Amino acid sequence: MESRTAQRASSDALAAVAAYGVAGIWLSTVYSPGFGQSVGLAGGATVIGCAAASILRRTPRFTTPADRITLLRAVLVALCAALAVPVLFTGQPPDPLLVFLGAAAFLLDAVDGPVARRTGTASAAGARLDTATDAALVLVLSCATAASIGPWTLCIGSLYYVFGAAAQFWPHLRSQLPTNAVRKTIGAFQPFALLLALTPGIPPALAAAAPALALPLLIFSFARDVIELARGTTVGADAPPPEGGDGRQSMLSGRPMSGFSRRRS
To answer: Cis peptide before 211, with omega less than 30 degrees from 0?
Structure first.
């Protein structure tokens, strides 16, 4: 028999999936159905499905207040995917609702870490969930800007996954780097720049300039981290959690991906 903690975790994961299901059905009735919309809904289902699976795979299974906030963010990111992915097929600008949902998911990223810190519930599992949600948000927003700015914006969303794929072949990329303020700033600028480019009424020059600045900064940040990791500039296994000790290192604020990080206390 499952413990009450495990049951609560399962309920939290299923509630997130159900919330996306209901909202996804609403989106499918508001927007004209078609291949692009179907793929968008499938993309959103992938986002929320991965988030739920992250909870259900935990041994022992548990969720924390910070995890619930991250699950809410995952629902918002999944809805963004349902609105953004069709843009790749239609070439039409995404609905302004995407900016609202994306901004909410972006701002909530500043909440789950402090909540984990204050409640004393930081965990490596929570960091992995937070990281995956951050990565999905940036990828989704880069898809949304591809039609209006150019397909090169997809590079912003894909670099995280390229880094993850490279780490499968070069184990030194899986080590944990020390916290760095420059890395945090560059990481946080990525979703902000993409949201700015998608905001209705923004001058075209500014809309293009924001992601055009974000991409080289991100490349610089990843390149510097790869060099530091190759040199062995890493945090020891017994070091305190990064990002102010909240144990929820974000893809937007730290590298490498928490899924490849060493276990944190």
So the answer is: no
Record the tokens describing residue 214, joined without a space.
């974000």
Could you tell me which residues come within 8 angstroms of residue 54 by beta carbon, excluding any fewer than 6 positions away? Answer: 125, 128, 129, 132
The Cα–Cα gap between 161 and 183 comes to: 17
The CA distance from 123 to 121, in Å, is 6
Instruction: Indicate whether this model's pTM tops 0.90.
Output: no
Q: Is the dihedral of CA 53, 59, 61, 63 positive or negative?
A: negative
CA distance 2 to 237: 32
Confidence of residue 95 (pLDDT cuts 50, 70, 90): confident
> In the numeric block, which tokens belong to residue 147?
């039609």
Q: Which residue has the higher pLDDT, 247 or 110?
A: 110
User: What value, to the nearest 5°, has the Cα angle with vertex 139 and ends 223 and 228?
Assistant: 15
